[in-house]
Design a protein that fits this description.
The protein has no helices and seven strands. It has strands spanning 2-7, 16-18, 26-28, 31-38, 46-54, 73-78, 82-87. It has a three-stranded antiparallel sheet with strand order 4-5-6, with no helix packed on it. A hairpin with a 7-residue loop joins strand 2 (16-18) and strand 3 (26-28). It is elongated. The N and C termini lie close together (9 Å).
């Protein structure tokens, strides 16, 4: 499996992305969301947050039912973080 590291603004619907903590958890992006939170450094500035919402990618041995199944959730990245996504060959 090939991967690439991209900016959060480069993630698109249908991309398969890795958990922001680097764990071997992957999700297919079905929806995009946005939010913000304080930087907590006394500057009064905010981080822009990007939420990538979708089902987990499972092994072919356990096919997933995509709608209304447990595990349909999101990965949240700050604007300055990189996203690891799978590259289709």
């Amino acid at each position: 499996m090939q991967t690439e590291s991209v900016d959060v603004t480069e993630v698109r619907m249908g991309d398969v992305i890795q958990d922001p903590r680097g764990a071997d958890n992957w999700r297919t992006v079905r929806e995009l969301g946005y939010d913000s939170r304080p930087k907590n450094d006394g500057s009064g500035e905010y981080w822009e947050l990007y939420a990538f919402i979708g089902p987990p990618v499972e092994s072919p041995a356990r096919p997933a039912v995509m709608e209304n199944r447990p595990g349909f959730d999101r990965f949240i990245f700050r604007e300055d973080e990189q996203v690891t996504r799978r590259v289709l060959s």
